[in-house]
Amino acid sequence: MPQSEIQEKTMTWVNVDHLTSKDADDLQKRFGLHTLDLQDCLSITQTPKIDLYDDYIFLIIHLPTYDTETRRVRTAEINIFVGEEFLVTVHKKTLPALQAIFFNCKDNPDIRRDFFGRQPGFLLYRLLYMFSKDLYPLLDVIKDDLDEVEESMYEGETNVIRELAIVQRAVLKSRRILNPVRSIIGTLVHLNRPFLGEESDVYFDDVHDHFERAWSILENDREIVDALQKTNEALISQRTNEIIKILTIISVSFLPLTLVSSVYGMNIIGLPFAEHAWAFPAIVGGTILFILMILLVFRKRDWI
User: Fold this and answer.
1) By the 8 A CB rule, do 50 and 59 touch?
2) What's the pTM value of the predicted model, to 2 decimals?
C-alpha cells in the first residue's frame, strides 16, 4: 500500500500517496472517516473546501506549483483529515513541503517529539505553514519574469507580448488557486475544536497572514501586468507613428518627382523642353531642389 505512517505516543500521522479503494476502506474503519469524504479523495479533482464534524475536520487544499519546462502553473491537491490523535494526508502529486516535514519527523526523533508532542492542530499548522512558505519560490519566478519583460519591452524586443501573456497566465492561475484557500484558512482561525489545541487560532492566524501576503503580492503582480500591457501598447503605438511619419515624409518628398515623371511619361507631343538637350538634368535637378526645400520646411517645423 503506497502509504507511510509515523506514530509518537498516542499521535499518528498517516501519509497516503494515490489512494485506492482498499486504502479508503482501511482508513474508514481505522479512524471512522465519512465515506463521502473518502470518495472525494478518490475523485480526480475536487473543489477546495472544509467539512466540519464533531470528531474530525476534512480539508481539500489546492496549491499552485510551477512547471519550469512548460512555464505553466499547475494545481496540486492535498486532502487532510485531522481529528483526535490522528492526522491523515492524501495526495496524488508529490509536494516538496509535505515530503520535507514527513521525512524530517520520521528520521529525526527531536523534530518528531516537537511536532507530535502537542495537539493535532499544531501538526496541521506546521503543514499549512510550510505550504505557505513554499509559495514564495513561485512568486519569485513571477517577479523575475516581470522584470525581464519590462527590460525587453524598453529594449524593443519582438517577443514582449508573448512573454507578458505567459506571466499574466501564471498570475491569474495562481490567484484562482489561492483564493478559496484563503477562505478555508480563515475558517480555521475562528474554529473551536478541542483536538486543535487551545492556541490554534493564533497559529492558524499566522498561516492566514502568510497566505494573505502571497495574495497581496499576486494582486500587485496583476496590477503590474496591466500597467506593462498599457505601456507596451503605448510604445507600440509610438513606434508605429514613427514609422508612418517616416513613410509619409518619404512619400511627400518624392511627390514632385512622381508628378514630373508622370507628366513627361505621357505620350503627348510638344511637352515643354522635351526636345532640349538639358531637359533631363534640369528636371532632375529642379526636382531634387524642390525635395530639399520640402525637407527644410519639415525641419524648421520640427516634423523630422
Assistant:
1) yes
2) 0.78
